Amino acid sequence: MRPSVKKIRLLLGNAAYRDAVWLGLAGFVFWLVAIAFDAHDSMHDFILTHEHWELDEIILAIAAMGIAGFIYGYRRIVDLNKEIGLRDTAEDKVAWIANHDSLTSLPNRHFLESNYKSRNAHGRSALTPEMVASVDLDGFKQVNDLLGHSAGDELLVATAERLKSAVGDGLVVRMGGDEFVLLIHTAPKNPVSFGNLVIRKLSEPLVINGVQVKISGSVGLAVAGRARDLDTVVREADMAMYVAKRSGRNAVAVFTPDMEQGFLRRAECELELRRAIKKNRIVPHYQPLIDLGTGKTCGFEALARWTDKFGPGYTPDVYIPLAEDLGLIVELSEQILRRACLDAKKWPRDLDLSFNISPTQLTDRLLGLRIVQILGETEFPPQRLQIEITESAIAKDSDTAFRIISDLRASGIRVVLDDFGTGYSSLAQLSRFEFDGIKIDREFIASFLNDEKQMKIIRAIICLAKGLNAKTTAEGVETDSQVFALRKIGCDIVQGYFFAKAMPASEVQGYLADNTFDPKANQESA
Ligand code: C2E
Ligand code: MG
Ligand code: MG
Question: How far apart are CA 301 and CA 356, in angstroms?
């Protein structure tokens, strides 16, 4: 509604204004009637014949009071006008707040949803973009966790500006958290190149509190045909975004109808996962850890495997985060640990069991107690158990993580930092937390032989670990040259496909009997 029309409606709806208009009209009619009946002359005669009643003074007083009353009324009307103005501003403010995100000033989910159904005078949707992009940041959570919420806020504000510059005259909507929707009025000829432009803008480095932060994003695109509901196009762009996210960082995906099928499959996977956990169908397999000093297997890492007919195709990278999302991770993890402890009890006593803990578990204050309880139930010695946690898991809630790690170490369980070198490695974390070991991420191992820089980093990590009295494990070792180079630079333990993939419990004894490795052989080739 136009502001002037709104104002007139407000004025007419107001009792004070109505009274003023009616009284004015009544006065005018009375004046006309008085003229018609010559009332003034009659009154004049009446006043003269009744001089002793002092009617002229009384009428003067009434006239003075009338003028004062008029001024009073006028002033109240001015006040009322001001009140209406203030109410207008307040209402506009409330409407703005309801439809915008206060941090970035971008329109919000409510704005978009209220536009799904609204139609203009021609029956068309008020918002009719030709293309919709759904954008989700990768790495935002880590910035928030590691650098604090104010840094996260700063990043979101910068992201909003970057997205605005990418859409031109289009509209950027913040759907919540690190999710954005872009409404693009004129669809570009090549949607993927637009998606890449968005990613390029998002990936530009940004300095927050003196720290250089580099994030990326996943972009899903859906092209709106004629007469398609905005909510359908936004939902399709969301689906495409999830597909892009699953395929890794910095990915762009354009919606295709088969994606809808993919989503149905995910829903099925959720259902199957619930059933698999209920029926204990996810079990640990074991990948050996080799001591480079002795050449002997010194332990096994338990890795979850979904073994029933639905399992193949689903890797732990898919169902562990899914179990976290569904709140099933505690149940699943306890099941696997119980089973792993029972299996590991059958191994020679000098072999350790390494067990992974996912990030959400590290925010559970009772985690230490739960693990110790399972060790008690299965009668597995805590000294043989090693818990693997990742850096980003610590960052999630570092105080709770600190308590859990202290509890575990106090019970005799060793704690190892997994995937070291990925995410946001912080020396502050290493100095605050006590670790018994550091596992160098397999990305470094894959390239260190051909990359002098990576080699230097690995040397530095080994040196740092030695200084902290922690053992180093290299994961993802696939060739003998990697093994010997790692031995040469002082790495303690290795793990990878060069030795064995994760195997079922039934194959462990056979592996131990057949496999011996001479760490000193082939030394010269390194
Ligand atoms: P992770 O703890 O870093 O485990 C090592 C991963 O590297 C495993 O993948 C393993 O199969 C793989 N790997 C080992 N050697 C090689 C190699 O030489 N080359 C290559 N390319 N890969 C190698 P997997 O089993 O798919 O597990 C992935 C991640 O899932 C694990 O990473 C761990 O973080 C998580 N995970 C696995 N099992 C569990 C579990 O029971 N509980 C929890 N919370 N997380 C688990
Ligand atoms: Mg691990
Ligand atoms: Mg790892």
Answer: 8
Contact 502 CB / ligand 1 (< 6 Å): yes
Q: Measured from the CA of 498, which atom of ligand 1 is nearest?
A: 18
pLDDT band for 226, please (50, 70, 90 cuts): low
Which ligand is nearest the CA of 476, by number? 1
Residue 388 CB–ligand 1 contact under 6 Å: yes
Span 415-419, average pLDDT: 94
Ligand nearest to the CA of 302: 1
List of residues 6+ apart from 423 with CB closer than 8 A? 142, 390, 391, 392, 395
Nearest to 447 by CA among 498, 485, 493: 485
The domain covering 109-255 belongs, at the CATH homologous superfamily level, to: Reverse transcriptase/Diguanylate cyclase domain (3.30.70.270)
Please report the pLDDT score of residue 209 as a whole number: 85
CA–CA separation, 363 vs 141, rounded Å?
15
Q: Which residues on adjacent β-strands are paired with residue 417? A: 389, 438
What's the whole-number mean pLDDT along residues 342-365? Answer: 94
Give the domain ranges of the chain. Answer: 5-99, 109-255, 360-435
Going by alpha carbons, the residue nearest to atom 17 of ligand 1 is 476
What's the pTM? 0.63
Residue with tokens 């949803």: 113
Q: For 159-186, what is the mean pLDDT?
A: 94
The sheet that has 131-138: what strands, in order across it? 171-176, 179-184, 131-138, 216-223, 252-254
Atom of ligand 1 minimally distant from the CA of 329: 44
Strand partners, 221: 133, 254
The mean-pLDDT minimum among 11-25, 212-226, 331-345, 402-416 falls in 11-25
Residue 203 belongs to what H/E stretch?
helix 191-203
Q: Give dist(CA 174, CA 179) in Å, integer.
A: 6
pLDDT grade, residue 524 (50/70/90)?
A: very low
Distances (CA, A) of 226 to 125, 192, 234, 316, 336: 11, 21, 15, 42, 52
